[in-house]
């Protein structure tokens, strides 16, 4: 089921009509949700992330998926394009990741240097939001030339805030893609470390924002850098300082270093659940049509 879904999903994202042959649909290997979920290894308890950069002390309500399993969910389960790299994913223990209520926190790490937080009290987030909207609007022409639907930043789903004591930055964006039936939620947390930033991105729909806000407080509570990698471990005589501050983290200064595909991919992940459900229905209709034609 998941390979045809991925193909159809990409076609929907690119605004193309998928060409499905009866022979292809009939011969495509099928996998039930149960089989897919059983192929994943849900880990619990104390987790050390790859590279020994940070740890997760998971309570009973959460599970961890390795980078390989996270890729399965992102690509084969949720239908994102391949090429996603991460340190794994945090998922709720009592929710099927493939269900309408499914969501997850994708973990990555940007080792671009020690991010100074001197600008924490001087950032004008309203002005920053305006610049971000304009930037995305200007980028839509490039997106559409590449075959992707236009995307719009509606506003803050949660205005940015910075905890100086824990060096954690929070914010959430509401995004709308042309043709999508529901706006997407991209809930962001950045944990500043000695040599870089631990990135925690919750992928969900706007309808889940109340739950995500609550759950992400727990996620940050059980996430921490290992000894020697914490913000307080910074050594000004030996460690590199990042070329950007907190404002650039919110505005996407790091993502601007990526190519077009990288920037598009980072945004498309936010719409996984809505698109997956739409495509699942489309695939069901196509399969019934193909089956009827074959009969």
What does this structure look like?
The protein is of the alpha+beta class and 295 residues long. The chain has one domain. The chain contains nine helices and ten strands. The chain has a seven-stranded antiparallel beta sheet with strand order 3-4-5-9-8-7-6, with helices on both faces. Strand 7 (168-177) and strand 8 (184-192) form a beta hairpin. Helix 1 packs across helix 9. The longest helix is centred in the C-terminal third of the chain and has 23 residues, at 272-294. It starts with a helix and ends with a helix. Mean pLDDT is 76; it is low at 1-28 and 254-295.
Largest sheet: 7 strands, antiparallel
| Structural class assignment | alpha+beta
Strand content: 15-25%
Low-confidence segments: 1-28, 254-295
Number of strands: 10
* Adjacency order of strands in the biggest sheet: 3-4-5-9-8-7-6
Distance between the termini: 20 Å
Helix content: 25-40%
Q: Determine the oligomeric state from the structure.
A: single chain
Number of domains: 1
- Overall morphology: globular
Give the overall average pLDDT: 76
Cα radius of gyration in angstroms: 20 Å
Helix and strand pattern: HHHEEEHEEHEEEEHEHHH
> How many helices in DSSP terms?
9
């Amino acid at each position: 089921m998941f390979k045809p879904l991925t193909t159809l999903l990409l076609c929907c994202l690119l605004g193309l009509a998928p060409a499905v042959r009866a022979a292809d649909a009939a011969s495509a290997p099928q996998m039930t949700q149960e089989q897919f979920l059983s192929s994943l290894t849900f880990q619990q308890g104390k987790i050390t992330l790859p590279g020994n950069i940070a740890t997760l002390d998971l309570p009973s309500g959460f599970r961890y998926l390795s980078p390989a399993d996270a890729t399965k969910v992102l690509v084969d389960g949720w239908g994102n394009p391949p090429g996603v790299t991460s340190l794994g994913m945090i998922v709720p223990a009592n929710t099927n990741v493939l269900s309408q209520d499914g969501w997850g926190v994708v973990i990555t790490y940007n080792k671009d240097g020690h991010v100074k937080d001197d600008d924490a009290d001087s950032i004008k987030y309203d002005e920053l939001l305006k610049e971000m909207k304009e930037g995305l609007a200007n980028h839509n022409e490039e997106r559409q030339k590449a075959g992707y639907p236009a995307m719009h930043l509606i506003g803050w789903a949660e205005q940015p805030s910075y905890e100086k004591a824990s060096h954690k930055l929070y914010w959430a964006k509401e995004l709308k893609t042309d043709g999508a039936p529901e706006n997407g939620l991209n809930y962001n947390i950045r944990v500043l470390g000695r040599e870089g930033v631990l990135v925690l991105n919750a992928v969900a729909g706007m309808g889940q924002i109340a739950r995500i806000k609550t759950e992400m407080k727990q996620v940050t509570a059980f996430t921490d850098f290992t000894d020697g990698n914490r913000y307080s471990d910074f050594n000004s005589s030996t460690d590199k300082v990042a070329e950007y501050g907190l404002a650039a983290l919110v505005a996407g200064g790091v993502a601007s270093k990526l190519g077009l595909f990288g920037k598009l991919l980072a945004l498309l992940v936010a719409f996984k659940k809505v698109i997956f459900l739409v495509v699942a229905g489309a695939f069901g209709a196509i399969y019934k049509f193909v089956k009827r034609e074959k009969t």
